[in-house]
Design a protein that fits this description.
Layout: E1 2-4, H1 11-19, E2 23-26, E3 41-45, E4 54-55, E5 61-62, H2 67-80, E6 86-90, H3 113-117, E7 122-125, H4 129-132, H5 137-152, E8 158-164, H6 176-188, E9 193-197, E10 200-201, E11 207-209, H7 217-239, E12 241-243, E13 246-249, E14 253-260, E15 263-270, E16 276-281, E17 289-293, E18 301-302, E19 306-310, E20 315-321
Parallel strand pairs: 1-2, 2-3, 3-6, 6-7, 7-8, 8-9
Antiparallel strand pairs: 4-5, 10-11, 12-14, 13-16, 14-15, 15-20, 16-19, 17-18, 17-20
Helix pairs in contact: 5-6, 6-7
């Protein structure tokens, strides 16, 4: 498991994470000897949400950080970190480019993000629709935008996604089904890693409880099941050859298809609160059959003319097999 630290690490933290078989991303810290951190300290976390207005010492707000400023920071982090990769997380401008919290940078998109992304190794964005009372499909829309900006910037960065799993300000919190939906929206739209936001914070962002998500047994069980589900498909997601599926749907859907050991696997996520009727075709598998995973004894269906109905924000995974 990989985690980014929300604060400065100590050698005691490193030792504990190492004992759990985990690796971590930390902030630059002169008090943390890199020679004693080893591979457990796998990457450095850059300044958060540089695409938003930046707080000044006098309490006012300045513009977002420029691509040149971000490149300087990345270079310094790599120098301090002995070449360790740099993770840079952007804000919800990835979903709402005109958001007022971006200050004078509000509305900047293609002219900002590809250049801002270019100096990082791993890039993500945070957007918490349940907290904001907004529809979940913003997660998929933001993930697609991030993927497009990576491609415009040269396509070298690894894409991650951040997901809310707690009552961030003590109010609404996502259900296990919503967490699963957001996770697969990120994955189906390019994410290779996920970060979970588990905190309860105050109005100024101060942490009130670090493990707020763990207070809900249903969320804990849901996260265990989600981790197992994603881990099962990790070899396919990481090693499979990408296939371009043909998907026709009554509502927008996220779709990702990969070929692995001669079978093809398709991830679909309904991006709407209403059920979506979908028609699916995969090139090379038209004469075969398809099953929904996990199979649970359900009979295979012909892949030719395959249709299905996805419930509100539902993710589904299918395996396509070739015909004789």
């Amino acid at each position: 498991m990989i985690v980014p630290a929300n604060g400065y690490l100590t050698l005691e933290d490193i030792a504990h994470l190492r004992s759990l078989g985990m690796v971590v991303g930390g902030k630059a810290n002169d008090r943390l000897p890199l020679s004693e951190s080893g591979e457990t300290l796998a990457f450095f976390v850059a300044r958060d949400e540089p695409d938003n207005a930046q707080a000044r010492e006098d309490g006012s707000w300045g513009p977002c950080l420029t691509a040149a400023e971000l490149a300087d920071e990345s270079a310094e982090l790599r120098r301090i970190g002995g070449g360790r990769p740099v993770l840079r997380n952007f804000g919800m401008g990835m979903v709402h480019p005109e958001w007022i919290g971006r200050g004078s940078c509000a509305g900047e998109t293609d002219g900002y993000y590809p250049a801002a992304i270019a100096s990082a190794d791993i890039v993500s964005f945070d957007y918490y629709p349940v907290f904001r009372g907004e529809p979940l499909e913003g997660v998929a829309q933001g993930a697609r935008r991030l993927r497009s900006y990576i491609e415009l910037g040269g396509g070298k960065q690894v894409q991650w996604g951040i997901i809310e799993i707690s009552a961030i300000r003590g109010g609404a919190k996502p259900t296990p089904a919503q967490i699963r939906s957001m996770a697969w929206m990120h994955i189906a739209n390019g994410a290779k890693g996920l970060i979970f936001f588990p905190w309860h914070v105050g109005e100024k962002g101060e942490r009130i409880r670090d493990d707020a998500a763990l207070a809900d047994p249903a969320v804990v069980e849901g996260l265990k099941a989600l981790t197992a589900e994603i881990s099962q498909f990790a070899p396919i997601l990481n090693s499979g050859d990408e296939i371009e599926p043909t998907v026709s749907s009554t509502h927008a859907v996220s779709a990702l298809a990969r070929r692995f050991e001669d079978d093809a696997y398709l991830v679909l996520v309904n991006e709407n609160s209403n059920p979506a009727d979908v028609s699916i075709a995969l090139p090379g598998y038209e004469s075969g059959n398809v099953v929904q995973l996990p199979e649970n004894g359900a009979p295979a269906r012909p892949a030719s003319g395959f249709t299905d109905t996805l419930d509100s924000y539902e993710p589904r995974i299918y395996r396509f097999r070739r015909g004789d």
